[in-house]
Amino acid sequence: MPDHVLAADLGGTYIRVARVSSTGRISHRRRALTPPAGGVAVIDTLAALLEQIPRKHVRALGIDVPGLAYGDGDVWAPNIPGWKRVPLGARLRERFHLPVIVESDRNAFVVGEAWKGAARNCRNVIFLAAGTGIGAGILADGRLLRGHGELAGSVGWMAVRDRYLPRYGKTGCLESHAAGPGIGLAARRLLRCEISAPEVARLAARGDRRAQQVLERASYYLGLALANLVSTLNPEMIVFGGGVADAGDLVLKTARHTMQQWAQPIAVRQVRLVRSRLGDSASLLGVAKLAFDATGTSGHTLFESARGSSAKVEFRRRGK
Fold first, then answer.
1. Among 46, 63, 147, 239, which residue is least crowded by beta carbons within 10 Å?
2. Beta-carbon neighbour count of residue 211 at 10 Å?
3. Right CATH number for 4-108+280-307 from 3.40.50.450, 3.40.190.10, 3.30.420.40, 3.40.50.280?
4. What are the mean pLDDT values of the chain's consecutive 10-residue runs (320 residues total)?
């Protein structure tokens, strides 16, 4: 009986693939730059990486994308040129003759952390990913929260200020201020030099007060978003990941304090805010778990299992 799947993480900068066992063991990792031209070149690069991995005892292929994954396997990925509605699932099924599950990266993150990471065995979990953009994967009673049009978790659009700026129309309010590009923009205005978000974090870690001020402001906005998520969804855990989370306590300290100050008081006492334990393995494990669940013994087709009315990502309750 096949006990492995192929897993792929398609990002705006890198494509990463691996083979994942049913116990969560990752092997045969491969990585390549995402072709900047976009279009079909991205699918060709992805397929070439996957072809390097042994397919003996492989039952399916799972892939996550930085955008929307529709139930038919089509993808909208705004950070990849030409990917307005690409039939990724169909293309990969034709090429590899395997069942294919296509999922958004934010959903893959939260499933991965709940399966093998910081939120293991939790059933009400939010993964807040803050990097080039901001999004959230949400598990509610063990089910992925998708929304009417697969848009649940678009928290980069949360309103965390009381005055609208034109740039919010492209990226959303929270993302404009607290994602990597927004942090870089704020730093360039204050420091009057070209600087990126990772460089801001390095300066802040060395004690530069102006860099610390930039991070504190972004962290405050993240804290407001966390408070809103806690008050609305009452999770037991929020896992914080992505490039912005790499700054550690420089971001988490202010974000946690702000969350505790603004959130519903009972709900905020029930939640734990932690950093991702899996890092960039979370998405690979997440799509692998979803692929295993979707191609199990039920005999359902892939997308019925993944997105049907009875679909559920199963995790055991704590202590069982």
1. 147
2. 23
3. 3.30.420.40
4. 89 93 96 94 97 94 93 89 94 95 96 96 95 94 93 95 94 95 95 94 96 97 98 98 92 97 98 94 96 69 38 42
